[in-house]
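Final report, closing paragraph on structural work. Over the funding period we assembled a curated collection of sequence-structure pairs, and we close with a single example.
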Amino acid sequence: MIVNNSNTMKTRHILGIFLAILFAVSASAQTDPVLMWVNEKPIHKSEFEAIFRKNQKETGVSREALDEYLVLFTNFKLKVTEAEELGMDTVSKFKEELAGYRKQLARPYLVDNEMTDKLIAEAYERMKFELRASHILVKCDIDAEPKDTLIAYQKALKFRERILKGEDFGKAASVKGGSDDPSAIKNKGDLGWFTAFMMVYNFENACYNMNLGDLSMPVRTRFGYHIIKLTGKRPARGTIRVAHILIASKDEDSNEAKAQAKKKAEEILGRIQAGGDFGTLANQFSEDPSSKGKGGELSPFSTGRMVEEFEEASFALNKDGDVSGIVKTAYGYHIIKRLELKPIDSFEEMKATLKQKVQRDVRSQLPRKSFVAKLKTKYNFKEDKAALKPFFTVVDTNIFYGKWDATKAAKLNKFMWSFNGKNYTQADFTNFLNKSQRRTQREDVSNFVAKQYEKWTSDLIIDFEDARLEEIYPDFRMLMKEYRDGILLFELTDQKVWTKAIKDSVGLASFYEKNKNNYLWQKRYVVDIFYCANAKIAKALRKDIAKGKMSNEALLEKYNKESQLNLKIESGKYNEEENVTLKTNLPKAKGLSADIQLNGQVVIINAKEIIEPTPKAINEAKGLITSDYQSYLEKEWLEQLRKKYPVRVDNTVLYSIK
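Its predicted structure, as stored:
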């Protein structure tokens, strides 16, 4: 018998391929089994587990937690399935939005994170100290031509020589023809105290590498050249938390108004020194609306965050609880109480914040450059630097107006560089220059061409790595899937629930009518609340109120002639939660209350009206009603989706998550 060996071998080869595929699928199923099917589409354990663990860090893994989260995950997947069935993942708006998010999410993967860590550590070490410096600025644009840059550099050197010969720094900075920093006329070049991130990076670098009293060589920043004198260095003072009482007074106020404001501040200080409670007096009299209701307390601040007079007075207080005298600033008269002084936080506490600052700062360019350098090594970058020189002559100043004629480089076609086995030529660079040219600030042509070449190579190298992120990093691939599904979910939920609830006025009105008793006003009180400095004023005031002939304005004018602190009046319509005084002294009937002793004052409440609970009108609770209507619409929508798309769950796989 004759056997066709070629057919037998072919059959065996096909069978081998089939078995290999079968084993690969089987292995994949074992390592990442299907957890559930939504509309017959498989969803693997890895996807559910990654999102579950991200959102359940505190509660841990239990059957109850898995069951509870499965409900949320299923609702999420039902909505995404509906969006996909509607083709929402194919529209250009969705693709553009997802691409925008991808660009942001990719950034941490496209820099040298070791370099970033070094910059974070450097910044923290610098923040342990605060510096004070003066400077003389010679303006020079960052893209200035070499001859203009040289002129500015030499001018800065001359300033340095004058000061080294004995000329006063402040005088050299402030006189006509001195520093190009306009503030130097008043501050004589003094920049005050600062720490890391408060100055541009090159300036910061120069200062932190100087010794006290040093005079720098010209330091280049985007503003020009600086001659810097380091005049102070001290350990960081940390972060201080204070409360203050402000009596507002502006420079343009009349002398009489200024005197009255100062007198009022002095009266309040006198009460504090006599034992009065600072927080209570701040609530009563401070004219800073942002801190008045909090006993005068301000958010914590560090060096350089407040006007200098206020900052210095705050840090001059020796211990928690100490109170300043009257401190004058451009805002008025302050009385300051130290609440807490904290030293600089530990590195671990500050690391996340410092990382964000580094990423937003100009120093973020350094990790990118380092990353490009590492990619060049990784993918065998080679270049012929001589191939760039012809462009210094064929490119002219027309390129700064977007009018350069690229045919001038038509004969240039030599090798320039290679990366990951792909070659790039002079013709490729010509095409890049031609396509990217636009109207821009004029500079030296050679400098411009060299910078464009650096940008061209760096961008292409970064783009190559960027395109492979999903392949290289499974966590990035998973993150992109989350964002993709999240955008689809948002768009469809907006259509079906959020925007619909806002636009569907008929449906909203019907929902309100069925549920109006869920939106009741609390019991409300229309009152005048009188805060009297003492019982004598309260007694006299009570008589005037009973007569009913004087307005509140007239009462204030009468009783505050001798002191602005004698009488204060609050008027309005409140429920018991909206007014602290009313909360503990609710009127039982209309009319005047008995005298109430409160924080050293005598308080009288005049209840003009008491309004019993009633349903709010739809416009009075529209936000809450709309929110509840949205919840109602979403619940109905999910019920429809569950009927439309079958869901199957493999509980064995679900409970294998430990």
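Residues 1-29 have pLDDT under 50 and may be disordered. The first helix runs from residue 5 to 31. We thank the funder for supporting this effort.
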